[in-house]
Amino acid sequence: MSYRVRKCVFPVGGMGTRFLPATKAMPKEMLPIVDKPLIQYAVEEAIIAGIEHFIFVTGRGKTALEDHFDHAPDLERTLREHGKNMEIEAVTSWMPKSGQISYTRQQEPLGLGHAVWCARDLVNNEPFAVILPDDLILAKTSCIKQLINAYKEVGGNIVAVADVPREQTKRYGILDIMTDNGHLVRAKGLIEKPDPSKVPSTLSIIGRYILHPKVFAFLDKQIHGANNEIQLTDAIAKTIDSVPLYGLRFSGRRFDCGDKVGWLHANLAFAMNRIDMCEQMMEVLKEFK
Ligand code: G1P
Fold first, then answer.
1. Which terminus has fewer CB within 10 Å in the chain: N or C?
2. Using alpha carbons only, what angle is made at residue 80 by residues 88 and 274, rounded to the nearest 5 degrees?
3. What are 12-35's pLDDT values in tens digits?
4. Which ligand 1 atom is the nearest neighbour of the CA of 135?
5. What spacing in Å lies between the alpha carbon of 193 and ligand 1's midpoint?
6. Domain 7-286: homologous superfamily in CATH
7. Which of 205, 230, 248 to mutate to test ligand 1, by most ligand atoms within 8 A of the CB atom?
8. How far apart are CA 30 and CA 20, in angstroms?
9. Distance 135 CA to ligand 1 centre (A)
10. Residue 122: which of 6, 43, 38 has the closest Cα?
């Protein structure tokens, strides 16, 4: 088995009901943060981390995602004719090369574990990364790169983690902590969307994972867990005896772009982070004081 993390799975089959009507005819992963769709942030984060193969687990109505990662000959020709070199760069420079992206469809919405399981033959027998594009992370070092760096040191399964308020734990996968050095946590258990009164900690999984292919052996069983869905968390928990589980307190700021307020917040934060926009944004924000 290769120990290098070369492949990354992007589960992008979700319907985006929380953003209707915006997502009626457009995948939620195409929602922009300033001027770039969420999915592009996720792919760029993986490229910086040295990922060589990008596996999209899509669903019905998601062809705009495939088009986004393909050449747009008419657009590029028009831009070239008008000498708009910066714009050509903006639409092409980040594209993975032909053959570096694979698409497979999740035919039924059976949960995150099921979505990742759909990629099993494309991943094959090697460690792989998973990025949930809804979780957008503003960081100096790509979050998935931080996880890969930790993986090089300790191996196992690694998830990005952050503390959340206790009442929010029912939205996340929560770690049961064995040891904690403030940066890296070794977990002895993991539970999906627990009731706040029964949580082993408030340390939650944020949508970044480095996983051992052994998780597929459990996902093969198609066991339904929390919310009657096939949960990735359960597969990681079930392999904990043979594959140690670590949580990495990553450095960076996470925005939950699966939520309207989180998405708006991300737009503000990313705009304020851009030198070409921050002054104008400061002026706009004064209006709302
Ligand atoms: C998924 C995972 C959960 C994780 C969360 C992070 O939940 O199942 O363990 O904490 O992503 O965003 P979902 O947001 O799909 O309900």
1. C
2. 30
3. 998 889 999 999 999 999 999 999
4. 12
5. 8
6. Spore Coat Polysaccharide Biosynthesis Protein SpsA; Chain A (3.90.550.10)
7. 205
8. 13
9. 9
10. 6
